[in-house]
Amino acid sequence: MFYRLSGIYHTRYATARQLWPIPADRWQVYFLLLVGVAAPLIFSNFTLTSYLLPWLIFTAAALSLNLLMGVAGQLHFGFAAVMAIGAYTSIHLVRIGVPLEFALVGAGLMSALIGSVFGAAALRVKGLYLVMATLAMQYLVDWTIINVPAISGGAQATLQTPSTTFFFVPLRSDTARYYLALLWVLFVTLLILNIKRTSVGRALVAVRDKDYAAAVIGVNVVRFKLVAFFTSSFLGGVTGAVLAFCYYQAVTPEQFTFNVSVQLVAMVLVGGLGSVLGSYLGAGFVLLAPIALTNFAVYLNQMGWLNVSANLLSHIPLMIYGALIIGFLLLEPLGLGKIYDNVRKYLLVWPFRHSSM
Length: 357
Hints:
2 domains; ABC transporter involved in vitamin B12 uptake, BtuC; mainly alpha; two-stranded antiparallel sheet
């Protein structure tokens, strides 16, 4: 078996503190990275732009939100508004001649500034009260974008992304836009993985578990809650800009509504709070499962194996999708990432008796 701890000796702290100390884990990461880099050569252009590209971008959004909800334990139901701020800011900055590299940073800073203002509510309230504060942010940003023509051009206006380059590479082709999204999601992934191993990450976990106890042992709760909101909002703002330039190539107010915020929360919960791998799995499940179920239902209907009305046929995938979410949460409340971790731990010691989960 390739998944074995036998023969692996950690004689130095550096080897024990690696992100992936087990060789099998490293080989899986290398394989997935190779597939990601070679995806434009492996998959069709339709698969690349319709499935892989949005999956990567929304995975980055789920990772950004997971830093706040999973690591720091702060609820946020207005993350689509954070992404909207980043998307509109980046477009306006590029329009006035700012290079895209700096426009992405500006988009992140604007989102972080506004997100931290609303996140300051976390200093006084928590739980459902914090949810209401973030909902207020969602609706206030939606109203502002729709009713201020200088930002969006009007309620029904579509703001086109201008032609630009990223490190002297024109973002004209689907391949160039895909590689920008891949580069960003890899950066966010490595950032979250390393934050969890630092003193800042441990302080955020302490605040998540019990903020009063964290304050007793010397953790500055106010500071680290604001750090969590600032960092998560910054990453979300840049992700919104990447979504605008790499996938939509035009933004409208309808692209960042409350429904998108609910989808992002679902990605985090289904994938697993605090799990980096779970963010990938959760984003893929929420985005791709409805499409796969719809295509499968249509195929069964065309083959004559599912003779139902067109109205019922359109709702069957949604019913199965909801049942799958409930089933996953009942089977493993910690999400899809935990299911993978259970299988991995089983293989580490199989076939011995103490390998049962």
